[in-house]
Amino acid sequence: MEKIMKMVVEKIETKFDQEKVIEEFEDLTKDGGRIQEETLKKILEQNGGTEYLEQWGLNGRTDPQTFKNCVPIVTHNDLEPYIQRIADGDLSPILTGKPVETISLSSGTTQGKPKFVPFNDELMESTMQIFKTSFAFRNREFPIGNGKALQFIYSSKQFKTKGGLSAGTATTNVYRNAQFKKTMKAMCTPCCSPDEVIFGPDFHQSLYCHLLCGLIFRDEVQVVSSTFAHSIVHAFRTFEQVWEALVVDIREGVLSSRVTVPSIRLAMSKLLKPDPELADTIYKKCSRLSNWYGLIPELFPNTRYIYGIMTGSMEPYLKKLRHYAGELSLLSADYGSSEGWVGVNVNPKLPPELVTYAVLPNIGYFEFIPIGGNLNGMEQANSPVGLTEVKLGEEYEIVFTNFAGLYRYRLGDVVKIKGFHNGTPELQFVCRSNLLLSINIDKNTEKDLQLAVEAAAKSLVDEKLEVVDFTSHVNVSADPGHYVIFWELSGEATDEMLQDCCNCLDRSFIDAGYVSSRKVNAIGALELRIVKRGTFHKILDHFVGLGGAVSQFKTPRCVGPKNSSLLQILSSNVAETYVSSAFC
């Protein structure tokens, strides 16, 4: 395994060898069980002397059975006191043998506040392994030459913890690492935008300049990407508003006064020169488009595909993204979280709705808790199984152990086994285990909510309206409790139409517990609240104001009672409210 690891994380500066990377991946996945045992052994040898692991009595043993018998399955809440001590400057080996120097922040969009998780060199190496493996399979199907990537990536503000550790979002920690830029260059997809734009303090100004850089290098752009599909949709919604200003900047060679950050203005002045011909081209193309359909290939004619995470909470943006993409392929990025990586998309031709992820058996030790139809509880009575013990078609919650101090950690994701790549499973993301609309016996997942919104929004299409974004809340302060759905629309709809949408939403939750509870009024009538235009942009601004990165933003699909600041933004921007009469 040591030999394979060295091959996989070889010096990035060398020329990217696509077939070699694929060959290494095939070798890794042929004997997933053995690689898993070796990976766990390596993790425990490096960290067995830590305070956390010593308390569980492993006594130097590194085999999977002893590990499972001795070390408990945990959530972030269980590890939070240990991570906080590290952040506060305790240098003793608490979770890892080597000192942790960097802390990653989760997005914080689900619970209302970001979580601290350790970040180290091993996680950076696994990130680069994922990036290279994914690119190798992608480039085999969609080959690109020497060009550029229009990447809508943004760095959040890094800060120092009480103990002097650097802290920032996981994406920021990756973008700021020297290996990232070297890897992008080796894969022939350097970013169009200078670092000053990526690391700028104001994401509105950075977004404007990302768009401008893309237009300046329009003939070289081969990939349009961001961490999440939401960021790409947001970027081109913004383009609709600012395209004429961008054309003026290109025509005159002078950056708009809306960009005020000196470092960004200086960096852009080196790229921006008067180009009336390019300005005319862009103006004509934008003027000819019908409702902005096919905008991306019109602006960037040599683009091969659009790339980003498009599963889970990103699926609702696919319709709009396809509208902008025209005939271009949408390729879903790999499967990971702030805590670490899980799998890689080795079947890039699959549409995002069907994408699967092959688990890399050397980046962590993986266990899977069978769901067995019990999404809400997932009791420990369901004993976890190993990577090679999962069954086709079954659903599991992921438990993983990594090189950065997380041991038997419940990731909170539910996945379905869709197949196998050699000896490693291919997973399909199902939902977050804790994102449930539930009042009593009802259980509706994020996917159930998405399907209900899609069904109800169909009647808007004839009026050329769309749901810009949505979220939900369970109101248990009322008696009986009921679901509240928040919609932001692209324009004005009639009361009659929105009442129909409200009723359709209520009927579209087909969970047996919900339907039976609604019929006897154990769950009250669903509320549809229409919020003012720009409300979800305020939520994004709020998130960024807390230190989050736009690249990492995910609209929370269910706003819990603890997330009072988001509830306040939503509630204060309600324009109209409709109450379902579906079960009257």
UniProtKB/TrEMBL annotation:
Residues 447-560 form the GH3 C-terminal domain. Signal peptide: none annotated. InterPro entries: GH3, GH3_C, GH3_M. The keyword Ligase applies. Residues 357-432 form the GH3 middle domain. GO terms for cellular component: cytoplasm. Keywords: Ligase. The keyword DNA-binding does not apply. GO terms for molecular function: acid-amino acid ligase activity. It holds the Pfam family GH3. It comes from the Eukaryota. Transmembrane segments: none annotated. Belongs to the IAA-amido conjugating enzyme family. This is Probable indole-3-acetic acid-amido synthetase GH3.5 isoform X3. It comes from Nicotiana sylvestris.
